[in-house]
Amino acid sequence: MNLTPVLRAEALKVLTLRSLCGTLLALAVVTTAFSALAGSSDASDPDFDPLFTALSGVMPGQIAAIAFGALVVSSEYQGNGIRLSLAAVPQRGRWFAAKLAVIAVPALLVGLATALAALLAARAGLGTAAAGLTAGEQVRGVVGCGIYLMLMALFAAGLTTLFRSGVATLSTLIPFILVVSFVIGDAAGTAADFLPDKAGQIVLYRTHDGTPGPWTGLAVTALWAAAALLAGFWRLRRRDA
After folding, report:
1. How far apart are CA 91 and CA 96, in angstroms?
2. Angle, alpha carbons 17-23-27 (nearest 5°)
3. I need a surface site. Which of 67, 163, 184, 209 has the fewest CB within 10 A?
4. Cβ pair 195, 176 in contact under 8 A
5. pLDDT higher than threshold 90 for residue 149
């Protein structure tokens, strides 16, 4: 079977499941709303970073991106739907590639649109505090934010394929990002810049003192996502549906 009909079938699955579209809507609403609120922050803080402040809504918003990646895959394991999918597409690599495509493309497009909306909403509140941001810095922040959200969605998709459970993925990733990552970050110093979330978020800062740069940090997150996807594909290939 060619890849095109497989892509079409997987895209229809995403479009017909309200919960999946709802997570993307939540991503946009939550990220923009929190960034707009951050726009009223105190710019006199010595650690104030106008770019990160404007895009800080991605912190809670990324939970929706993770949920989207996990739910797209975990929906296959509900009611043994995976058996029907693999019966229709016996080439598991082709099926997995199509599944990842329908996660990556919507997550990237929604992420880019959301980052732009968040930046504009926050800048309206920051006023002159954000006047020093250059066009290049803002473009880098918006593009980097979209890529980061896509990578986190793919990271979650890889773990869900490995665990064969969306609940297990969400129970692992969300506490890690909200709690463990901050604890490790305080204890590990600059080594925390190589954690999957911390590394990717470097692109959201106007300036950063750590070792990885903005794009290098995204590359680190991409490596984490690739490792999770390879592990998930290994499990998919070796286990019966």
Report:
1. 9
2. 155
3. 209
4. no
5. yes
